Amino acid sequence: MTAGKQRLLVIGNGMAGARTVEEIIKRDGSSLFEITMIGDEPYGNYNRIMLSHVLSGETTVDDEDLILNPMSWYSDNGVTLHVGDRAVSLDRFSKTVVCESGRSVDYDVLIIATGSNTFFPNMDGLRESDGRLARGVFGFRTIADTNGMLQMAQSHDDVCAVVIGGGLLGLEAAYGLRTQGLDVNVVHSPGHLMNQQLDERGGRLLRNKIESLGVGVHTSRRTTSVLRSEDGVVTGVGFNDGTSLAADMVVVTAGIRPSVDFARAGGLVIERGIVVDDQLRCEDEGSIYAVGECCQHRGEVYGLVAPLWEQAVVLADVLTGANPSAAYHGSRLTTKLKVAGVDVASMGITAPERDDDEFVQFYEPRSGTYKSVIVRNNKLVGATLLGDISKANFLTQAFDEKVPLPDERISMLFDMGTPSAATGAAELADDVQVCNCNGVTKGAIVSCVHAGAKNLSDVTAKTRAGKGCGSCKGLVKDIIACAAGGAVEADPTADWYVPCIPMTKPELLDAVRTQDLRAVSQVFTALATDGLEDAAAKMPLASLLRTVWGPDWVDERGALFINDRVHANIQRDGTFSVVPQMKGGVTTPDQLRKIADVADKYHVPLVKVTGGQRIDLLGIKKEDLPKVWGDLDMPSGFAYGKSMRTVKTCVGSDFCRFGLGDSTALGIALEERFQGLETPAKLKLAVAGCPRNCSEALCKDFGVVSVGEDKWEIYVGGAAGAHIRKGDLLATVTGSEEVLTLAGRFIQHYRENAQWLERTYAWVPRLGLEELQSVLIDDRDGIVAGLDERMQASVDGYVDPWQDRTAPKSPAQFTPSLPLLPLPQVPVR
After folding, report:
1. Where does the record place a coiled coil (predicted)?
2. d(C-alpha 809, C-alpha 48), whole Å
3. 139: three-class secondary structure by DSSP
4. pLDDT (tens digit per residue) in 188-226
5. 140 vs 173: CA distance, rounded Å
6. Residue 798 to residue 819: CA distance in whole angstroms
7. pLDDT surpassing 50 at residue 731
8. How far is the C-alpha of 394 from the C-alpha of 402, rounded, in Å?
């Protein structure tokens, strides 16, 4: 221990605990405390609000908007972090905390920030005999929950899900699963959705919006059981009226409960949460504090992030002495967010409670708009906005009694004398919270601009405003413009391929070629700012180098994701799936026998026909992968990487009585030519033998449809997953050779110009169909010959990655590695 410093221990590395430490460090707390944190998840601090974006496919668990404090942040700020461990016992007299791993940590000041847990109602079939959740049952609280749902959704076709709970979290879960292509039903005990934030009319309108997404809604239904087959597989849910609903997956979002087991075992005063005073000090304690969702202040327990930020500021002021008299007096809750794509703002009560309450409503189901305000004694005590939330900023100020109410109450809902959306940014008070997700005020944004921030990216990086649900980004941009005295500067980093290298993708490709850079480390050294590595840039750079150099790139194992290192798709339990190639979906009895023999030999727990007309062997151990590939004696099907995947085909003209062209033969030719090609994101193809489109070619990245007389329509930029989009008709060509040629040009142009993880359904409309036709068909820029040449070089350099079985890239490539460290098993709470 450093002389003169106290030992500050924080139990919990979630949003409240980490934010409190951030506020302490801002107040020079590092000179006062040696800070230690204990977190039971094996990550740095992340934004739980963003998990719904991960589930819907809008972002990934590696996205910098999700990770609030990466592991490097702790070491950079002198914070000792113990991850993957859980505090289990507290000795208040010796001031010691013992963890599940046996680790003992002493403290002088203790902050408990254990947050909350998913509330699982008592239902038959919910759990296994050992207390674990049944297979196919999930909460929606952690990265592990989210990954589990995604893996089940992506590894099984025709999965149907039931979400129990129609509040904010439940609707976000339903929306995310729906965008993954699942059939989803929401079950809610109360009579209308989001009953905590909306009245009955608002809930009815929201229901219409949710049902328009293809999600079933069942209100006034109480779930009493999870139905399971004899082997424990989830088959549905049962209700109190004796009816049931089929389901393969059950997601429970029936609320949260403060996590107080650690505090209760230590003898602290517990009611609904850990009881604290106005300085967040635990009752009858001098050196123990609690913050966030685990604590109870003046009888209230808060489940939104805004109160957490307010508590963190007060506690940091108290502990550092920056303001010893700082006090938390509770929070007036205002919520502005996007629920399943629908804008919602809510504050105060949702319905009048007294006879003399003034109640103004506007309800327009056709446009999906609902607005209401409740005024009592000339004060705004409640407001609800759904669909059109342009007046949310004014209402927030009125709710906080910072602006007077207009005599015409209807003008609180429409621009009739109150500040318009355009002028609202300038008229907002400095202490108005703009970003509820991260607790950022207008004043903080203005100060950031005055300190030198010039654009939205700068402000977001420094304040985190807009890094949560993203609904406030427009307002943040308006505030920046006001503070800067004009328009927001263009963000110079917006077009960079990776954040650490100030180059667009074409510029980066040119530099890689001219400087002969063949390893990711070489690219960092030569081109990155100050030559510094960026972990998030490794995968996109590795993909780019493989695009340029093919087999001649320098393979640095640390630059690759686990799927790319072992050429298989990692599953939830650490095993892998193997998908052998079946060109065009065509197989033989010999191949089928080999697959069956391998499934028997290696005790494969699940053999599954995929949506891409392939057979998936799930549950293969890492060390068995080379032997499985050898026994199969079939090439890789590339179901695991950011690459050209499969070509789906219909029966075609040989057997189908409607077939106009040999779709099977053309599909096989496409797959043989472009197999395994590195691409910015996964690339799916299909060929249909007639406009009936049985192979779904109209909604693929590259789809081909026969229209007779050896003519083929080529569609690009289609999607039928997280996003639904019919492809654009790029051209109609004659003969299969023309299809192959144009496919090669399109794919190569996409490889060289799309951003990392940018699917064609985003890239094609971004460039524009006419632009693509001018470049690829009319050869306006004279680049077609180069595209053809570079594509041919990539095709010539193809090597089946499953040949690694005979010469592994490293000694550890196929050795068991999971779990990476012996993590304690945290019981379900």
Report:
1. none
2. 37
3. coil
4. 999 999 888 888 888 888 898 889 888 999 999 999 999
5. 7
6. 33
7. yes
8. 9
